[in-house]
Amino acid sequence: MPAYALRRLAHALPLLLGVSMAVFALVHGVPGGPEAALMSGGRAPDPAAVQAYRDRLGLDRPLHVQYARWLGAALQGELGTSYATGRPVSQAIAERLPATLLLAATALLLAAAAALAVAVIGARRPGGGADRVSTVVAFGGLAMPAFWFALVMQLVFGVWLEWLPVSGMRSPGGGGLGDRLLHLVLPAVVLSLRYVAAWSRYLGASLRRVLRSAYVRTARAKGLPEWRVVGVHALRNALGPTVSAIALDLSALVSGAVIVETVFAWPGVGRLFVTSMLARDYPVLMGILLLGSAAVVLLNLAADVLHGWLDPRLRHV
Fold this sequence. Notes:
CATH architecture of the domain at 97-316: Orthogonal Bundle
Number of strands: 0
Order of helices and strands: HHHHHHHHHHH
Helix content: over 70%
Distance between the termini: 12 Å
CATH class of the domain at 97-316: Mainly Alpha
Shape: globular
Strand content: under 5%
Number of helices: 11
């Protein structure tokens, strides 16, 4: 198992380097530039002021030199300084990261639990009423835009019924744990819907295939309880492909959080990304994109290792 994990890690490191190069090139290839902050009232800025600004930020140097300096600092945990606020990028991200992790983790747990329940119920009776309902919910969840569903949830539960708050992470003046949980409900449900739909279909199809296997028939013939046949014997082998699909969807979970955080005014990294993009705050954008890309690569690495643990045949690939 350690050798398998090391092989996967060796494949991930060049990918991380390539991702960092792509992120740096894309951000610096955007038309305009940080000197656009000098624009005032739609008038062109003074060329001398623009040049002094570029000199101070090191933007007049060749792109590969800028990348080498940025990468060297990033490896030491220094992601630069925000053009807009003058604060360290790592500090700005660290302040917003707990809120995003809380939202993403809650949505992940909700989606995984709901997808598992829907998949098991549907797989035990293919073509039954529960299976048909789960299929309708799955296609509806995949087709429904997150921002539209968020607005509907705000209108129904926040405006009409007045059950839940529709914005922010806490009430004005602060609030206890219960207040924060109430603020978390709507954004977490909206963010999890798409993944409930997708993961339940992945797991349901895999579980139906496994339940037709010979060893499952043997386990039933031995008189094992149905919960043990499905929950212990079949589910472990069915989880492998679903774990990989979940890991691949984590990047979409992060990008979906950008939309949800914006609609619900959730003070996370996604909202910081939007405000930095509007301000052309390149260091903050690069820091968020780099950390997000690194997280996706490392989570896929973890999924490969977990899949190898679930299915020992993959360790020799």
